[in-house]
Design a protein that fits this description.
- This protein has 782 residues and is of the alpha/beta class.
- Helix content is 41%, strand content 10%.
- The protein has 33 helices and 21 strands.
- Strands 9, 10, 11, 12, 15 and 16 form a 6-stranded parallel beta sheet that branches. A 5-stranded parallel beta sheet has the order 1-5-2-3-4. A 4-stranded parallel beta sheet has the order 19-18-17-20.
- α8 links the parallel β3 and β4 (169-173).
- The chain is globular, with a radius of gyration of 29 Å.
Length: 782
């Protein structure tokens, strides 16, 4: 099969990709796609091209640009400014359902009238003038027609109203394939070939596949892949149509033009209907066909080599353009909902559990996940976790100052009972609080410690207080449902407060306004350098400062810098980070967001990095306003950096050993749709950097690239110690829709309804709880 794209328009597409966590229901409306030649006596030696139609504003009017703003009583620009920048695209990809869309549709968290919006859009769907007649004529001439479009599960509403399946099959809809066709031209071409070819290969060998789309190809007339043209642009065919200039909803465009009103039926019919038109079309395609056959075969063989690596032009080159897109999922989707029997928390618990989560924001985050799991294991009522205000950040914001408490409690209602404080009891006519018995859990305590020592004390005293509570529950647990509970806490229940989300979205929007951006956790800070024992590159005075900090905060241990560096135990210097990126092929136009505290050693370490990559930003430089400065200190500042790094196109940690920030982000980005990460192998790179410092620079860039090509760029991969569960929750928190392994199979779509019914059965002792149980449950809560 040879594919040629035809697009009746020009526009600039921008891509903001965020991926979350829930598959949409797959609906198949495919018609019989066997090809029937209309006049076998005249056409027995030719095959008609397969037609792939984009739908919105190509066949069907898109109500987003006029009807929807009117529904909200806003202008289009106002709507785009206040809506979540990626929610619609996530909905189009089937990563969230409509209830989750309603919850996050607006950046400021205001409620959305979901049913009203759906009714508005359904009223607005109509055929573009001439489109239905064109489809009818093509169908009468025995063309095989498929939808190849970006649209969510609401395409069912289009089908219900307009009955498009009379003319075409809904074969390639982004909510079912998980792929946006306009993610980038190179990405689109690969997906067009792989997905269309795999779906149609049984009967389309040797045929042309013509994509009718409303966007542009490129100014040069061809899409290039590894410097090879694989999708031809035919100006003579393009010139036959009026301009239709559009963007997808939420792409950030303030101006949208619709040229010609979609009156392209006569021109297109001239090229596609009847023998003469087709002969003319094939004549213009004859040269492109030969090139495309060769390039398609080459592309397919290249892609088969390694789905998790950036596609390279040779064994030591990296195609950085592929890194701006997400890594290959290999059919896996994030899913932390229970898959097997998961009873709701019993009416009566064994007592109350208090914990004090010490450390920084992300160490505390892991501790909260462990606290919820410990409460589940012991059938305890969890008291809202306490966040340590002294040991690291000197920030007394507390849980309520950072996280959305109501959402946290609601999201975990199927798992544990949560209260904000230990309740008071009446004893001997007096009211007093239960005094929690204090315990110090062993580090990485097994489940058996909680079901014996901790549970015994809880039953004896009515409440226990576990402190400190960092790394106090073993990560590797041979119970996938317990691990999925950790994911539900980490990736669904722990949501930052609205003002933090708003601030983070504002920074991301400004960074993304000029295209892709990369985030780097530049862990070149005093505490990490002192912990690692990497001192020799600093001045004598700086070394004294680091040694003093180490003596005061860490256990005494003999550390030799040269030995530590060779085994990859030292954080990368800013210059080394720049050299890695430069060797990989990133140039000085790359925009980089730095998530870091105060860099130790000052500007002299940053200067070489800045000379290679001058477009460096942090939350202060993106928006130097006083509001940003005042609201990005302490835990809140760490939370903002976390969200910006989560939403960035590429994330690069420079030290992911004991760095909870980097480890949690690696896991979150994996769960959020296999978002690209660059994880330098410090041990393998150390010898290369040492050689360079000794003047041996020949082949430096190529050697660095070879090392980087051996690393994982964000796709699913086996967790190997010492990699943390919080860094890589695959496969426990992922699933496949088509698999022979029942442990990996995605849970049913109605899993929440089942959990809700079971919870209702446990709690409906009076009419009030019956009323509460009828509330709608959002898939987002999982």
């Amino acid at each position: 099969m040879v594919m040629v794209m035809w697009r009746p328009a020009s526009s600039a597409m921008s891509s903001i990709v965020l991926r979350p966590p829930l598959p949409a229901k797959s609906v198949k409306m495919a018609l019989n796609t066997n090809i029937i030649i209309s006049n076998p006596t005249k056409n027995e030696n030719r095959k008609l091209p397969i037609l792939l139609f984009d739908v919105m504003d190509t066949i069907v009017r898109d109500p987003f640009y006029q009807d929807v703003p009117a529904f909200f009583r806003m202008s289009l620009k106002e709507l785009i400014d206040c809506k979540h920048p990626t929610a619609w695209m996530e909905f189009e990809r089937g990563l969230i359902n409509e209830n989750e869309l309603a919850r996050i549709f607006f950046k400021d968290g205001r409620p959305l009238d979901l049913e009203g919006l759906k009714s508005c859009m359904q009223r607005g769907y109509s055929y573009i003038q001439g489109a239905e007649e064109l489809l009818h004529d093509l169908k009468q001439n025995n063309y095989e027609i498929h939808a190849f479009t970006n649209y969510p599960i609401w395409y069912e509403m289009i089908e219900e109203k307009l009955k498009l399946s009379t003319y075409l099959s809904w074969s390639f809809c982004s909510c079912n394939t998980g792929i946006l066709t306009d993610c980038s031209l190179g990405c689109m071409t690969q997906h067009l070939y792989l997905h269309v070819h795999s779906r149609l290969k049984s009967h389309s060998l040797g045929q042309h596949c013509l994509l009718l789309h409303k966007g542009p190809l490129s100014s040069t007339g061809a899409t290039y892949y590894n410097k090879t043209p694989i999708v031809a642009h035919l100006p003579s065919l393009m010139d036959a149509t009026p301009s239709i200039q559009m963007r997808r909803p939420g792409d950030g465009a303030a101006t949208h033009k619709r040229g010609g009103g979609g009156h392209y039926r006569p021109q297109l019919k001239q090229h596609l209907s009847g023998g003469g038109g087709v002969k003319g079309l094939f004549g213009r395609l004859s040269i492109a066909v030969v090139v495309l056959v060769i390039c398609s075969i080459s592309l397919l063989s290249t892609l088969k080599s390694n789905n998790n690596q950036p596609i390279s032009r040779s064994s030591s080159e990296i195609d950085t353009e592929t890194l701006w897109e997400t890594a290959a999922s290999d059919g896996w989707r994030p899913s932390s909902a229970p898959r097997f029997d998961w009873p709701p928390p019993p009416k009566e618990s064994n007592g109350h559990l208090r914990v004090r989560c010490n450390g920084g924001l992300n160490q505390q985050r892991s501790a909260i996940c462990n606290a919820v799991l410990a409460a589940r294991i012991m059938n305890a009522t969890l008291v809202l976790p306490e966040l340590d205000a002294n040991s690291f950040w000197h920030d007394d914001s507390g849980f309520r100052g950072i996280y959305d408490v109501d959402h946290f409690i609601r999201a975990l209602r199927f798992d544990v009972r949560i209260v904000e404080s230990i309740p008071e009891i009446r004893k001997n006519g007096k009211t007093k609080k239960i005094k929690a018995h204090q315990l110090r859990p062993p580090r990485d305590a097994p489940i058996s410690w909680y079901t014996t020592v901790a549970l015994e004390k809880m039953k004896e005293h009515g409440a226990i207080y576990l402190t400190p509570f960092s790394h106090r529950l073993a990560e590797e647990i041979d119970n996938p449902e317990y691990q999925r509970l950790r994911c539900r806490v980490n990736y669904h229940a722990l949501r930052f407060k609205p003002h933090i989300m708003k601030l983070s979205n504002s920074i991301v929007s400004k960074l993304r306004s000029e295209g892709h951006f990369m985030s780097i956790h530049l862990r070149f800070e005093m505490d990490m350098l002192a912990f690692a024992g990497c001192l020799d590159i600093f001045s004598p005075e700086e070394q004294r400062i680091l040694m003093k900090y180490r003596k005061e905060n860490f256990a005494e241990k003999r550390l030799v810098y040269s030995e530590r560096r060779v085994i990859g135990k030292c954080p990368l210097t800013p210059e080394e980070v720049g050299l890695i990126l430069h060797a990989m092929g990133f140039d000085n136009s790359t925009k980089i967001y730095l998530a870091a505290g105060e860099l130790f050693g000052g500007e002299r370490f940053m200067k070489p990095f800045r000379s290679m990559f001058p477009r460096l930003e942090n939350h202060s430089t993106v928006d130097p306003s006083e509001e940003i400065a005042e609201n990005t200190r302490g835990l809140v500042g760490s939370a903002v950096d976390y969200m910006v790094c989560l939403l960035s196109d590429i994330f690069m940690p420079t030290y992911d050993g004991p760095s909870n920030f980097a480890n949690n982000l690696l896991g979150h980005r994996l769960y959020y749709g296999f978002r690209t990460t660059i994880r330098p192998d410090r041990k393998a790179l150390a010898a290369i950097f040492i050689d360079r410092e000794k003047g041996r620079t020949t082949g430096f860039n190529e050697t660095v690239r070879r090392v980087m090509l051996q690393t994982n760029f964000g796709g699913p991969h086996k967790r190997v110690p010492p990699e943390s569960f919080y860094t890589n929750s695959w496969p426990e928190c992922f699933c496949q829709t088509s698999t022979q392994n029942p442990d990996d199979k995605c849970p049913p779509e109605n899993v929440l309804e089942k959990l809700h019914r079971r919870l209702e059965g446990e709690t409906t002792s009076d009419s009030d709880t019956l009323v509460q149980s009828n509330s709608t449950v959002s898939m987002a809560d999982r």
